[in-house]
Write a structure and sequence with these properties.
By secondary structure, this protein is mainly alpha-helical. The protein has 4 helices and 3 strands. It is elongated, with a radius of gyration of 19 Å. It starts with 8 loop residues before the first helix and ends with a helix.
């Protein structure tokens, strides 16, 4: 039996929130420490693939990497240039999802499965997110702010919940025999 299972239901939630905050803190420190490497290993490849997909879709897109050392890529679609930052690649939403997986009272194996599920899912999601923003720049440039500031933020939250809840239901609860 898990040590958390012996706690009262209200305490379990408090423990989850505490561990969630601790994991977010660890990821924030690691992010700052690894920021230059993450620009080259996470942000640039996602931006590059999004530009290639935009070009395959017939949208003239270019990727500039002159600001990569500063943690920014330049994604140009026609005369609109996006400064792609880590926020644009969904990395902070990924951190929230990973923190939720790691904070949940599950076995180490289930947590590893959650990480293995979340990271590739977010790479694909982040690439598609940039692809959508490129399409908006090409076909509805007047709607860029609406999509960037409002819609994509809500989609981030929804995607975090979708991945976490999928992991919870399909991996953790199904292993415990608690699945619907």
């Amino acid at each position: 039996m898990s040590p958390l299972a012996t706690l009262k239901p209200g305490k379990r939630g408090l423990h989850f929130c505490l561990f969630f905050a601790v994991w977010l803190g660890i990821m924030a420190v690691a992010f700052e420490w690894l920021r230059p490497q993450l620009a080259g290993l996470y942000m640039y490849p996602i931006s590059y693939v999004a530009v290639q997909l935009l070009n395959l879709a017939g949208v003239d897109a270019r990727l500039g990497e002159t600001l990569l050392a500063a943690g920014v890529c330049e994604l140009a679609v026609r005369d609109i240039v996006y400064l792609v930052t880590f926020e644009c690649t969904g990395i902070f939403a990924l951190f929230m999802c990973l923190a939720a997986v790691l904070a949940y009272p599950a076995s180490v194996v289930h947590r590893i499965k959650g990480v293995v599920l979340a990271v590739p899912a977010f790479i694909v999601y982040s690439t598609l997110r940039l692809l959508v923003m490129g399409m908006v720049a090409r076909f509805a440039p007047a709607q860029i702010e609406l999509f960037h500031v409002y819609i994509m933020v809500l989609v981030n939250i929804g995607f975090v919940m979708l991945v976490w809840m999928y992991w919870l239901k399909e991996v953790v609860l199904s292993a415990r025999g608690e699945r619907d």
